[in-house]
Amino acid sequence: MKILAVDDDESIRMLLENALTPSGNYDLTTAGSAKEVLETIDGASSTFDCFLVDIQMPDVNGIDLTKMIRQTPEYGHQPILMLTAMREKAYLDRAFMAG
């Protein structure tokens, strides 16, 4: 499974790599910003199967990034999982509405 994970916190990206990479079942690419995600998608030789997206990021938050990903024709239906420590229902509702 080809996964693209984005989090502005390098330690979270390393945690994801340590958790997902050793099994050999996942081809994990990480990014530190929404801009980097969009550049990675644009330059990818094949589509990603799944996205892991941090909600709270500077510049473009994860909810807005999800909307951008969904506007890309080949990513209209791929699973997008939001990563967050936030518990406020309003954020969760916005994340679900974004796709």
From TrEMBL:
Cross-referenced PANTHER family: RESPONSE REGULATORY DOMAIN-CONTAINING PROTEIN, STRESS RESPONSE REGULATOR PROTEIN 1
Top-level taxon of origin: Bacteria
Domain Response regulatory: from-to ranges: 2-99
GO biological-process terms attached to the record: phosphorelay signal transduction system
UniProt name for this protein: Response regulator receiver domain-containing protein
UniProt keyword annotations, A-Z: Phosphoprotein
4-aspartylphosphate: residues bearing it: 54
Source taxonomy: Bacteria, Pseudomonadati, Pseudomonadota, Alphaproteobacteria, Rhodobacterales
InterPro entries assigned: Bact_response_regulator, CheY-like_superfamily, Sig_transdc_resp-reg_receiver
